[in-house]
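HUMAN: Now follow token order:
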Amino acid sequence: MWHSKVQHKMTVENDVIMQEIMTMLSFDDSDQGWAVINRGPADMAKAKGGTILKSLTDFEIWKEGVQEKGFLPALNDYLHELHSPFHCNRLILPEATGRSSSSIVAILKDGVQERVLCAECRRPMEKFIMYRCCTD
């Protein structure tokens, strides 16, 4: 889906689906999985796997909100309560999706090798671009 959107010149700034893809890709890098629960196109809850698991385990704490708001809005409210200002999220993308050739040349001039071999099998390794937000 990411590659299709990129080929059609869609960006996070001009496409809601790209924003959601970026969110899911950043969840995927947490090594704890992720979950999306939805009911129709507009009613959705999403989070990293550990956060979803905790929220479902804590259902007794927020179940009264289900009667008032519905399941997904109550779940989203509880997920928001679980959100910590201290986090470290990473988004790793293949090199070809995020850079122009001129910026790659600039990186190569700064000493980053164009080709790196795997230390174990000696095959060329893939290049990736990592975005990171760490507040802890």
Summary: Residues 88-134 form one domain. DSSP finds seven helices and four strands in the chain. The chain has two domains: 2-82, 88-134. Confidence is low (pLDDT under 50) at residues 98-109.
